């Protein structure tokens, strides 16, 4: 197995997602890898309400997404990552993360476990479960919530 070179991690600005960012940054620092921090956002409320899940945080508009990325970058830097890029994408968190993974040729995707054990997550799917099924690269699900 070769070392990871491009690591993608998603954030929605929540405490849980920042824990995943921290873990991804630690791995990026250990491997000397590039860390790409991604944030999805909805362009309007209609889109958000169509796809909203109980376990997700709604990021409405690109301004909040950019603020989330600033916080996540600070977290990643404090965890030791040095080669950091950010990306925002409109759409659902799963769509955005998959797009960022493909565009960057990621070999590792890191997400938090929020929603994976909820009833809604089991019935309708959750971001961690959905990206694990769709991803063509390794996926690490970080234990960020009980």
TrEMBL record:
Pfam families: Usp (PF00582). Residues 4-143 form the UspA domain. InterPro entries: Rossmann-like_a/b/a_fold, Universal_stress_UspA, UspA. Belongs to the universal stress protein A family. PANTHER family: STRESS RESPONSE PROTEIN NHAX (PTHR46268), UNIVERSAL STRESS PROTEIN UP12 (PTHR46268:SF6). This is UspA domain-containing protein.
């Amino acid at each position: 197995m070769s070392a990871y070179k491009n690591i993608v991690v998603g954030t929605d600005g929540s405490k849980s997602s920042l824990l995943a960012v921290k873990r991804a940054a630690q791995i990026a620092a250990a491997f000397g890898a590039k860390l790409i921090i991604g944030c999805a956002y909805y362009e309007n409320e209609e889109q958000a309400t169509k796809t909203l899940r109980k376990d997700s945080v709604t990021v409405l508009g690109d301004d909040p997404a950019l603020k989330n990325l600033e916080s996540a970058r600070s977290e990643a830097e404090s965890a030791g990552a040095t080669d950091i890029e950010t990306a925002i994408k409109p759409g659902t968190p799963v769509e955005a993360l998959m797009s960022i993974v493909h565009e960057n040729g990621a070999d590792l995707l890191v997400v938090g476990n929020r929603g994976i054990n909820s009833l809604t997550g089991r019935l309708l799917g959750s971001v961690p479960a959905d990206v694990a099924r769709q991803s063509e690269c390794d996926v690490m699900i970080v234990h960020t919530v009980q």
